[in-house]
Amino acid sequence: MDKKILSTAGFFGMSAIVLGAFGAHALKKVLTIDHLATFETGVKYQMYHALFLLFLGLNNHLSFKIKKTILILTILGVILFSGSIYLLATDSLNSFNFKVIGFVTPIGGLLLILAWSILMIHFLKKKS
């Protein structure tokens, strides 16, 4: 499980850097400042959660079940939250109206909150 978590952390981190560079260089020329800032928000949250998964994979105080649950919530949360932000921020660059999928952004955010909540509750319940 830890290998899967750490591999996912690596992928999320690597792709966040690629997307950040893409936004800073290629998209800077074609997006408004507001849309570029929105895109960067997606990149930031993806990187935050890459680091979160890195912590999760290196942590020996969590059970397999808790790690698996947090991993699934985090993967789905990043895909829905950051992924929808990327699509919404670049909506003006294509003919498809991605605003129709805007409702998935808060769902992704909720899944990320749940992942962090599970971690917090586990540590609050843990005896010193």
How would you sum up this structure, described in words?
It is elongated and about 50 Å long. The model has no long low-confidence stretch (mean pLDDT 93). The protein has 4 helices and no strands. 77% of the residues lie in helices and 0% in strands. The chain has 128 residues and is mainly α.
Question: What would a concise description of this structure say?
Answer:
77% of the residues lie in helices and 0% in strands. It has 4 helices and no strands. 26% of the residues are buried.
Q: How far is the first residue's CA from the last residue's CA?
A: 25 Å
**Any low-confidence stretches, pLDDT <50, length ≥5?**
none
Query: What is the strand tally?
Result: 0
Give the overall shape.
elongated
Which structural class do the helices and strands define? Answer: mainly alpha
| Helix count from the secondary structure assignment | 4
**Major β-sheet profile:** none
The gyration radius over C-alpha positions equals 16 Å
* Percentage of residues in DSSP E strands: under 5%
SSE string: HHHH
Overall residue-averaged pLDDT value: 93
Helical fraction equals: over 70%
Labels describing this entry:
single chain, mainly alpha
